Amino acid sequence: MVDSTLALLTQGYAWLPDLSRRKGPGPVRTRLLGKPAVALRGPAAVKFFYDEQHVRRRTALPEPILSTLFGHGAVHTLDGREHRARKALFVSLLQDAAGVAALAERVGEEWDRAAEEWSDRSEVTLFDEVGVLITRAVCAWAGVPLGAGPEGASRFRGPEGAERSDAEVRRTARDLVAMVDGFATAGPRHWRARRSRRRQEKRLARLVEEIRREGRSADGARSGTGHPFTDSGTGHPLTDSGTGRPATDSGTGRPLTDSGAGGPVTAVEAVAAHREADGELLDPHTAAVEILNIIRPTVAVTWYTVFGAHALHRHPALREPLALDRPGYARAFAHELRRFYPFAPFVAGHAPADVEWHGEPIEAGTLVLLDLYGQNHDPGLWHEPYRFDPERFTGREPGRDELVPQGGGEAAEGHRCPGEDITLAVLSTLLPRLARLGHRVPEQDLRIPLDRMPTGPRSGFRITDVSTPRRSED
């Protein structure tokens, strides 16, 4: 059987769906990186793939992907008890409704500030600017200092300092974007991604060590109890007078804690405090890897945001319901962006033993691929799958194993990305703003090449003559 590694690199997203069409229904057998491989798709295949008795992820991720996208020692490389213990950390941070809402609000505020500045510029490349504003928002939310010195104190003051701080945000954004942009190529983008990861891992490892030295994380305490703030008269936790719920930090959405204890308030502090299944703290490098696995995927929402601009440019009739923020429409639009536009081509794991899929034997050690892009465009699952139509998701949420742009299965127990809630919340915040933004799209190359992974409009989506809704009404 011919090895398909070169075909994957040259054909990109189209490789596996094309192979499936040529070989017909059922599993598709091939070879990748010299190993036997079998590709599956469909909701039943998702259930099969995320069952650890059938597929394990620990040994499936090649070194180039670990050195760019995920990081060595990341949660993606674990299985079983170790994976569940580490995954619980991510679920607690990324699926907390108040925390997700606080992050989305921060992103919206950063967009509003940026849009005012864009109106004074002759041209804006949306991809670059969205990456910067999401980086600024998620780093503030997670507790990653930007524009701060080694001891955490700001070293940038005054107008000149603001420029230097902005430059640091942009450098960080470029690194985070590079890690995603270079994972599936052997060229210069890949080596740029490696350098970016090494730079940010070193920086964040130092931050973790600093937090632990200051006693801000180990065992979730600074020196006190770590319990929520309480009323000195009643001893009951302080609550928000409007909702009656426990008072929360306005930046993170998490419960406020006693300043003497201050248990983990930020994502960075939570990672620094996390203990593994064996009771040990993460080493600083692995902690840095996992901090990046919180902020990097959030910055990756940049790709979907720009796809949103592309969709609105191609389908201008969709702008009005999105701009008016029709109930549920922004979320439906976000679902359709994630279904229609390409991002992750597939996920992979190894069969730990001889198993069967619908009567087809899969030998131990076989590389098992779950075809995400193919499933999201499968005519057996989607009516007119190559037509962009947010209405297919109005009034309904997709099934857990039906729409799989970020993987399938359960986020808490399996390998599904726990950041989907953040992706949807950020997109639901930004898409109506994008639809309301006055702008012109000049002549440019808006083609989206399927042989490039990850892909996007070649031009980065340039806009001119930007006007914010407030200014356009003046």
Provide the low-confidence segments as ranges: 148-161, 218-248, 256-263
What series of H and E elements makes up the topology? HHEEHHHHEHHHHHHHHEEEEHHEEH
The profile of the biggest β sheet is:
4 strands, mixed
Could you give the distance between the termini? 67 Å
How many helical elements? 17
The rough form would be described as globular
Percent range for helical residues? 40-55%
Provide the structure class. alpha+beta
Overall mean pLDDT stands at: 87
Major sheet: arrangement of strands: 1-2-7-4
% residues in beta strands: 5-15%
Strand tally, please? Answer: 9
Radius of gyration, taken over Cα atoms and rounded to an integer in Å: 23 Å
What does this structure look like?
- The chain is an alpha+beta fold and 474 residues long.
- It has helices at 5-11, 15-23, 43-49, 63-70, 80-94, 97-118, 126-142, 158-181, 188-213, 267-273, 284-299, 301-314, 319-323, 329-340, 372-375, 420-436, 469-473, and strands at 28-32, 35-40, 124-125, 346-350, 355-357, 360-362, 367-371, 438-440, 462-467.
- The N and C termini lie far apart (67 Å).
- Mean pLDDT is 87; it is low at 148-161, 218-248 and 256-263.
